[in-house]
Amino acid sequence: MKRIVILCVEDEAEVLDAVLRDLSPFKSVMRIEAAESVDDAKTVLEECAADGHPVGLILCDHLLPGVRGVDFLIALQQDAHYVATRKVLITGQAGLEDTVRAVNEAKLHHYIAKPWKAEELQTVVRDQLTEYVIRTQDDLIPYVGVLDGARILEAVASSGRDQ
Amino acid sequence: MIRALDALLVSPSRMDLPAGTMLFRMDDPMDGIYVLLDGQVKLYQEIDGKEVIFHAQTAGRILGLLALTRRSKAFFNCRTTTPVQLLKIGFEDLDQALQQSESLLETFITVLLRSMARRSTRLVELQTEVLALNKSLSRERDALARTLRELRQAQAFLVESEKMATLGQLAAGVAHELNNPIAAINRAADFIQEDLLALAGELPDGAVFGEMLNRALEQKPLTTREQRERRRALARILDDEAMAEHLVGMGIHDAADFERIARNLPGPDEAKIVRMNRYHQLGGALRNISRCAERIAGLVKSLRSYSRSDGEDEVEFDLHEGIEDTLRLFSNRLHDVTVERQFADLPRIKANPGALNQVWTNLIANALDAMEDRGHLTIVTAPQDGAVNVRIIDSGPGIPPEHLKKIFDLRFTTREGRVEFGMGLGLSIAQNIVSRHSGRIEVRSEPGCTEFCVVLPLAPSETVSTPSRSS
Asked: Which residues have C-beta within 8 Å of that of residue A47, sequence separation ≥ 6?
């Protein structure tokens, strides 16, 4: 089974370290990738596509060198390949205008303000990934332990009834 | 004429009236004229409740003149200003008399014409007077408008400088407050490091602990791209992607390195990696705490020196410090801006550092606004006899020539409908501060290159140079 990728885009090494550490509970079932710019993130996406890893979640800072996080997410939303990918902005700097654009044009799923709390970040990531796997994966059982088990089991049960 | 009238009309009755008597009112129907024999009257109208006198000396001898021509209503109000003696002659009597005597008609016409001429002259005078009044009114109105504009400008400056002063005090206060926790964080990180290294010496797997800790503390940061490349390379060698990921995460890039460190640890490889990773994470967290505390300390230092509360005092200082502080505080807008500094070796300048910081802030903010935070910002400093100049050059689209003259005007802003940074006060405040330092701001602009040049004398108070004593 190809592991689902969580991609973090963050240009400050210390902040990236912190996000990655907070994501470690998901490490057993997800593949966690890091990128420090939008260009770098695009390379990661290409590599994932080449290796056949689906991208389940992108956690993106806004104030990145070159292309802004919001613009990156908007561009992704227009790519059929990443429509299902959950998109979360994690930033301390996006103004209202950018955030509104992110919600309207990138179908942003969640916004996390810096500084964040580990529990908050993990709850958001867990919810978004649960949503992602329910919508896209055939075999949900591997995710029961790490993601939202109750919801996943419910989904499994209801899909069982449908059949 | 009076005599002729007396003769023809059989001595019409003479009326003696005291001063202040109302003879007729405007729009009263008139049935005759008055011939003034002695005394003075005034002809006036009431306009907006005020008495406007059209004729006093120029009324002439015949009153009801205009009514005579129209045979209808009085055109003015008429009131006696001195005791008067007059004749009242009804229109019918007058007609009769004039038909009877040719000489009377002639005399009457002459008197009539003379009166009309006098009144007409008076009209011209009135007109001229009105024109002159209008002129002086419009002069006064312009002066008032100017004063109002200046008052508004002064008020805007006051509000702005009050706001800046308050913000400055707040910033300085916050910066000061931040120093304590930062100092404590820095020291605490050092203490933890000392204690952990000491602990490493005492634990059975202390050698691994110490090595992993030091590796993390001294690790040179790799780009995410480099990390991925190393991970892929190692995964190929180990044929184990998860293991490669763990090792590269710990800064271990080859299998031999891992074997060397891990041989002192008990248990299977997975357990060893978990243990090593824990030690490495400790070091990494410590390193991040120290680095971030240093960054905050740097920002706080800039914030404090930027908002230094020197008040209005002029001190000698290095211009570059203020520019660097300002740039550092703009760092969140400089991600996509290449900043090029061409700093000359400048003499120290005597000025108010806080005020000048505001000049740099406003000019740099304008440059960044123009470039939309993307492009090339060049700051050039150079000595220039008895003065220094600071040029702030941006690669923005440039200022259209028709705007160039207005940019220092109060509230000139091209951000239509958007009230933000300084509300268009930025440049006029910068200019105000610079001229208080006896300096000037020059601007030239073409697409892709807009330059604001601030020329500041070394010591503003001495610009009116006194002849040197030796000569």
From this structure: B228
Q: Out of 3.40.50.11690, 3.30.390.30, 2.60.120.10, 1.10.10.10, which CATH number does the structure's domain B2-100 have?
A: 2.60.120.10
The pLDDT tens digits of the residues spanning B242-264 come to: 889 889 989 898 889 899 998 88
- The answer to whether B50 contacts chain A (CB < 8 Å) is no
Please say whether the beta carbons of B307 and B168 come within 8 A.
yes
Does residue B225 sit at the A interface (CB-CB below 8 Å)?
Answer: yes
Mutate to test the interface with B, among A5, A6, A15, A17 (most CBs of B within 10 A): A17
| Domain made up of A4-162: CATH architecture | 3-Layer(aba) Sandwich (3.40)
- What single letter denotes the amino acid at residue B44? Y
Decide: helix, strand or coil at residue B407.
coil
Task: Write a three-state SS string for chain A.
Answer: CCCEEEEEECCCHHHHHHHHHHCHHHCCCEEEEEECCHHHHHHHHHHHHHHCCCEEEEEECCCCCCCCHHHHHHHHHCCHHHCCCEEEEEECCCCHHHHHHHHHHCCCCEEEECCCCHHHHHHHHHHHHHHHHHHHCCCCHHHCCCCCHHHHHHHHHHHHHHC
- For residues B33 and B23, what is the distance between their CA atoms, to the nearest angstrom? 11
* Type of residue at B421: F
Residue A36: list chain B partners with CB under 8 A: 223-225
The complex scores an ipTM of: 0.82
pLDDT 10s digits, B357-412: 889 988 998 899 889 888 999 999 999 888 899 999 999 988 888 778 777 776 55
| Structure-token match 């049960």, residue found | A157
For residues B268 and B197, the answer to whether their CB atoms sit within 8 Å is: no
Tell me chain A's radius of gyration from C-alpha atoms: 15
Instruction: Check if the beta carbon of residue A28 is closer than 8 Å to that of residue A146.
Output: yes
- Would you state the structure tokens that stand for residue B251, as one six-digit string? 């800064």
Residue range A128-139: mean pLDDT, rounded = 94
Residue range(s) in chain B whose domain bears CATH number 3.30.565.10: 312-462
Q: Which residue has the tokens 């301390």?
A: A92
Maximum Cα–Cα distance for chain A, whole Å?
A: 49
Scan for tokens 């008020």, then name that residue.
B155
| Banded pLDDT at B471 (limits 50, 70, 90) | very low
Cβ-contact A4, A125 below 8 angstroms: no
* CATH superfamily placement of domain B312-462: Histidine kinase-like ATPase, C-terminal domain (3.30.565.10)
Q: Give the three-class secondary structure for B393.
A: strand
Distance from CA of A152 to the nearest CA of B (A): 26
